[in-house]
C-alpha cells in the first residue's frame, strides 16, 4: 500500500514539475483535454472519474501527456523500453506535398503498430468495451485523450521525407529550432508568455471564450462525421488528418514569402509567420477539445455511464489483496496488543493491592 501511494505521489510530482518546465508538449495536450472537459455531460464526467486514477478526481488534463512521459528515460526511467511499441501511434507520415491523407497507403494497417488514425479507432473501441478490464480501459482513455490532441497538430501528419518537420531546421525570432518543435511547443509558449502572463490557465480561459464566440457556429460541423464505422463514436480521425494534410501544404510548410520549406534550406521565421499561423494553432486546439469531448460523450451515451468492466484486472486484484492483508495485519497487531495489555493489568493491580496492604499495616 505504501509503495502504491508513494509511487502515485512521485508520478504526480513528475507531472507537475514537467508541466511547469515544458510548453506545448504538455500545455497543448492539457489545453485540448481541458476544453473537452467543459463539454462533458454529467454522465461522461462520472464515467471518466470511474476510469481514471482517484488522484485525478476525473480531471482528464492531468494525464493527457502520459503517453509521452512513458516513452522517455528522463520521465519513465524504470520501464520506458516497454512502451516503445506505442511510439508509432502518435503520428502518421503523409507523402511529401501530396496534400492529402491516403488512409490505406499512409497508415501501416498490416502491422500491429499502425498510426495515429488506427490508434484512435482502437482505443475508442477499447474504452467502450466492457470486456476490457479496468486497467485496460483506463489506459484506453489516457491514450485516446492524447491521440485526439496529436491528430490536431498538423505536423503529426507531416511529410515522410522530413519526419513530420523534425528535419527542417532554422530560426524563429533568431532562436534555433525545427519546424515540428515550432508547432509542438515554441509558438504556443511564446503566446502564453507574452500575452497571458505565462499562465496556461488564463490562455485556457481565452480559448474557451473563442470557442463560445468566434467558433460557436462551427461546433456542430466539427463534430459531424458521416464516414463508415468511425462515425459510431464520432472518432473521425481520417477526416481530421485530411485537414492536417491540407493545412501542411497551404500554411505549415510555407515560409513568410509563401515559399515551400525543406530540409535543404534553413528557415528564418518571425512575426509574420507567428501572426498568421497562431490562429491555426488555436483553432486546432479548440477543434481537438470539442471533438474529444464529443467522442467521450458519444461513448458514454452509447454504452451507458454504469458500463462497468466485466473482467477483474490483475492490478485491481493485487491492490485489493494488498489492502485486505494490511487490514488483517492491523487487526492481528491490535489483538496482540489488547491480549498483552489484558495479561499485564492484573499483575499491576495485585502489586497495587500489595502496596496498599503494606500501607495499611504501617
Ligand atoms: Zn503524442
Automatic annotation (TrEMBL):
Gene3D superfamilies: P1 Nuclease. SUPFAM superfamilies: Phospholipase C/P1 nuclease. The keyword Thylakoid does not apply. CDD domains: S1-P1_nuclease. The chain crosses the membrane at residues 312-334. PANTHER family: ENDONUCLEASE 4. The keyword Transmembrane helix applies. Belongs to the nuclease type I family. One of its GO terms (molecular function) is nucleic acid binding. InterPro entries: PLipase_C/P1_nuclease_dom_sf, S1/P1nuclease. Pfam families: S1-P1_nuclease. This is Aspergillus nuclease S(1).
Amino acid at each position: 500500500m505504501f509503495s502504491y501511494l508513494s509511487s502515485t505521489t512521485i508520478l504526480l510530482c513528475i507531472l507537475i514539475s514537467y508541466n511547469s518546465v515544458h510548453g506545448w508538449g504538455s500545455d497543448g495536450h492539457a489545453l485540448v483535454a481541458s476544453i473537452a472537459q467543459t463539454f462533458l455531460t454529467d454522465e461522461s464526467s462520472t464515467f471518466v472519474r470511474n476510469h481514471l486514477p482517484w488522484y485525478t478526481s476525473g480531471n482528464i488534463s492531468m494525464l493527457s501527456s502520459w503517453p509521452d512521459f512513458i516513452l522517455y528515460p528522463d520521465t519513465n526511467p524504470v520501464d520506458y523500453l516497454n512502451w516503445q511499441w506505442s511510439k508509432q501511434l502518435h503520428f502518421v507520415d503523409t507523402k511529401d506535398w501530396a496534400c492529402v491523407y491516403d488512409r490505406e497507403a499512409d497508415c501501416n494497417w498490416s502491422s500491429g503498430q499502425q498510426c495515429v488514425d488506427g490508434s484512435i479507432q482502437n482505443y475508442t473501441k477499447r474504452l467502450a468495451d466492457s470486456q476490457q478490464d479496468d486497467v485496460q480501459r483506463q489506459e484506453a482513455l489516457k491514450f485516446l485523450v492524447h491521440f485526439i490532441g496529436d491528430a490536431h497538430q498538423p505536423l503529426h501528419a507531416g511529410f515522410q521525407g522530413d519526419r513530420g518537420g523534425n528535419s527542417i531546421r532554422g530560426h524563429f525570432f533568431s532562436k534555433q529550432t525545427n519546424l515540428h518543435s515550432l508547432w509542438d511547443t515554441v509558438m504556443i509558449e511564446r503566446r502564453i508568455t507574452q500575452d497571458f502572463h505565462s499562465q496556461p490557465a488564463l490562455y485556457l480561459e481565452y480559448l474557451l471564450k473563442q470557442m463560445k464566440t468566434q467558433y460557436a457556429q462551427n461546433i456542430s460541423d466539427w463534430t459531424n462525421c458521416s464516414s463508415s464505422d468511425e462515425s459510431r463514436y464520432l472518432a473521425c480521425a481520417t477526416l481530421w488528418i485530411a485537414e492536417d494534410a491540407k493545412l501542411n501544404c497551404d500554411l505549415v510548410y510555407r515560409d513568410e514569402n509563401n515559399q515551400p520549406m525543406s530540409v535543404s534550406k534553413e528557415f528564418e521565421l518571425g512575426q509574420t509567420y507567428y501572426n498568421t499561423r497562431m490562429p491555426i494553432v488555436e483553432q486546432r486546439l479548440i477543434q481537438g477539445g470539442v471533438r474529444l469531448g464529443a467522442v467521450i460523450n458519444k461513448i458514454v451515451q452509447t454504452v451507458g455511464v454504469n458500463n462497468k468492466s466485466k473482467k477483474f484486472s490483475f492490478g485491481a486484484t493485487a491492490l485489493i489483496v494488498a489492502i485486505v492483508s494490511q487490514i488483517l495485519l492491523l487487526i492481528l497487531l491490535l489483538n496482540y496488543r489488547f491480549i498483552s495489555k489484558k495479561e499485564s493489568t492484573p499483575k499491576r493491580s495485585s502489586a497495587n493491592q500489595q502496596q496498599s496492604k503494606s500501607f495499611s499495616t504501617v
